[in-house]
């Protein structure tokens, strides 16, 4: 271990969503393995969740640092996270985090990190760190494809995006444009929402999957893009309380079962729930389906599903309310396909564990991630109609095709190979990124006269 490294302290500041904190934690572990000391900063509710996922061996190198948000009547502390947060409160949470800037400054002054890695969602952190003479790097927790697509829309709204594989359907493009416009309209000084030039952006990806998108992104944001490999949570650590599910899976045939889950933030509409339920019935496949409702919505699971659904599927299906040990489930040999919204962590886990994807993208980065997966050859999409509605027959058809139909062999062999290649490349990528971070600190120390 490098003695120079042992002195370096990184301050990691993710957005308050589980899908962001989780890859930040995996990054913290990898930095810790390379001799860094880490502060991981989030709200108490998020830290209580993430604490359980830190193995004993990291307890002295990864410190959890609490950030308290200002009080908003509609945002009590149990909502200081996106996990279970009703969707309409998301922008209030962003506002609350930004208003916690003075608390962040106090924390940084007392923790004195050598550098900060912040989530691209809170670009304003760059200004905070710079004002304290602390160098910083951004971390983007989704695909380079998606990031380049959004920056392209933001900067050259009228020009055609250069990669046709990511061509969005009309309703998807309309939503993407709305999202970009919402960011433009943010009621805050423009410089706080601009990506710093000549900076460093870490992305949890690899050139093997996204080389051309990384190059284009680097060109349009005028920053260095450093791939650090996909950051996948440890399936054993994610598997708390999984005994019943794993036993159930043990009794199913190899590759006979689909895992159905739409991440930590999206809540299915009633129509989507119905089409998926009937799709699962029609498919005749075994399934585990995670269903979530927003905090404060006490819905009865049976009533939320089509009448008689649970009896009709019987032991062929398991419905889990709230949260399931996804990474662990995906490692089980009975799983033949993952019906996913295509959040980047879910994709990374599916590729790592060699499971082909049945894509049902919902929002945000998911449509672009889906197109990328199709281009790479590890997923098929449940094609919606022109208005974006799902259809049970199509869901059943794609699920069967991916698990045991004509496409299944090719998809499975592609995803397994890709998973293997990414694993072997990610150590090299992380080492290279660490060297760049060390240079960043060194340059800043020389500039500040403290080297
Ligand atoms: N996850 C899980 N159990 C669940 C739902 C989600 O373990 O029941 C984990 C999943 O394994 C992944 C993360 O939550 O690591 C979701 O991240 P992703 O980027 O896929 O989607 P997001 O939640 O950001 O939409």
UniProtKB/TrEMBL annotation:
* UniProtKB keywords: Glycosyltransferase, Transferase
Using the record's annotation, list all stretches that form the Glycosyltransferase N-terminal domain: 13-220
Q: Name one Pfam family in it.
A: UDPGT
InterPro entries annotated for this entry? Glyco_transf_N (IPR058980), UDP_glucos_trans (IPR002213), UDP_glycos_trans_CS (IPR035595)
One GO term of the biological process aspect = glycoside biosynthetic process
Q: Quote the Gene3D superfamilies the UniProt record gives.
A: Glycogen Phosphorylase B
Superkingdom: Eukaryota
EC numbers, comma separated: 2.4.1.-
GO molecular function per UniProt = UDP-glycosyltransferase activity
Keyword match Repeat: no
Record's family?
Answer: Belongs to the UDP-glycosyltransferase family.
Q: What is this protein called?
A: Glycosyltransferase
Its source organism is Anisodus acutangulus
